[in-house]
Automatic annotation (TrEMBL):
Origin organism lineage: Bacteria, Bacillati, Bacillota, Bacilli, Bacillales
Keyword Secreted tagged: no
InterPro entries linked: HATPase_C_sf, HATPase_dom, His_kinase_dom, HisK_dim/P_dom, HisK_dim/P_sf, LytTR_DNA-bd_dom, PAS, PAS-assoc_C
Domain PAC residue range list: 244-295
Catalysed reactions, semicolon-separated: ATP + protein L-histidine = ADP + protein N-phospho-L-histidine
Ranges where the PAS domain occurs: 172-242
Signal peptide (UniProt feature, chain positions): none
Name of the molecule in the record: histidine kinase
Amino acid sequence: MRKIPVTRDGRKDSEILLISSSDVVKVESFRENQLLIHTLDEVYYFSATLDSLEEWLYEDGFRLIDRTNIVNMNYVVNYDSNSGVVTLGVPGRKRRKQASAARIHRDHIINVMEMLRIASAAKKEGYPENDPSHDQLRKLIEESQDDPYLRSYSMIHAVYERNRAEKRLVESEQRYKSLFENNPDAVCSLDAGGRIITVNPAMVKITGYAAEELTHKPIADLLLPGESTRWEKHFALALEGQTQYFEQTFIRKDGLASIMSFIHVPIYVDGGINGVYVIAKDITERKRSDELLIKSEKLSVVGQLAAGVAHEIRNPLTSLKGFVQLLKSKVNDYDHYFDIMLSELDRINFIVSEFLVIAKPQAVKFQVKDTASILLSTVALVNTQAIMQNVEITTRLNEPLPSVLCDENQIKQVFINVLNNSIEAMPDGGVIVIEVFAKNGNIVFLFTDQGVGIPEERIPRLGEPFYTTKEKGTGLGLMVSYKIIENHHGRMSITSELGRGTTVEVSLPIAQPEP
């Protein structure tokens, strides 16, 4: 609404007041270039001609209804066409004012009152997609084609259309804002130079940065070093109008890497592209689950193979053992050799049994066992081989240590596999340090060697069947170890640095006392 500069007494040197045109009910001419501005409660003075003021206030609903009066049609509550008097007021208030209207304006005033009533009701109730108010206004205009005051109706309809468009724009902005702010996926907009303009709360949560830290920051700064070229390629294609779908590693504020799925959507403004919307989803856990699924599928295939091989070996093994025992009972002086053969056959049978761990869950016996005794007895078994390789095994136990619920033989098998790998990784000798401590309801075993280390890119594949870093290895040892720890509801992880050594962490849940 416009502001009208008025005075209280009409003198040129009087204080000028600004009143809103929405408070004015009528404007009355009392002398040349001197007007009285009426609100329902006050009267002010204004210097202008009646025609010029009407032109200025036309869009606000003011109409010249006779040669001395301009009326704010929004305040018309009654019109007596016989006397030519317009009554001005507000519903619910007793205060009223009147203005004279020329009889020639009768139909004009009635039409304007009806059109303003329709427009006011539509503004209050909203503007639906199929707005009946729009059709009513258009019909009134069509019925007044020969009316000399058609400009008044067209102006009301134009203001109505503008308000309707503004309302739709506000609703559209609110819907967009809701979609942007409440989207569970990270969303940000980039300018044509790749700098971040806006970010939603999900983007802040995923990256760990505050919104102020991200604004005007080049998004390439959040990528892994060396991966910006790939990002720039997709960004350039998006600026050419091609929506892009790809995955890339993202660096959070805390330094952790997350695998993100990105969608690049070009931003069109006035027929041109001036930026890109980026929609991102953290798929790190999904990727990890996919890798576990692939690894499980490989385990299943190797398990079937292992079961078949074990079956085929055991059949002739049984026959060999039977014939050796028969020969032992019939041949004298060779008992020592027969005992060696039987011992080796038993050893082959044991290896086959261990091989079957790959194929199917074994009938393991879970018992509450002392953590320290399992580890120390395993170290005693391996220590001879370590000494021969010039390797020293040092244990650091933060006693007293709680017990674990486990199959002792299987846990020993895991420890032997880990220690053997560490010994083989130090051909020139070194030290293996074993630390054991309780943490967050688990017993943690840390095996740290001073070996050659493992390349970082190869660590994720450790534990896959037939994948090994050793020249003559099969990869089955670590695979079986992972499976055993998994069956014990524990966790096994490997970290390494080339030339510095490897650390294997085995975590097992502490045994809970029986109720």
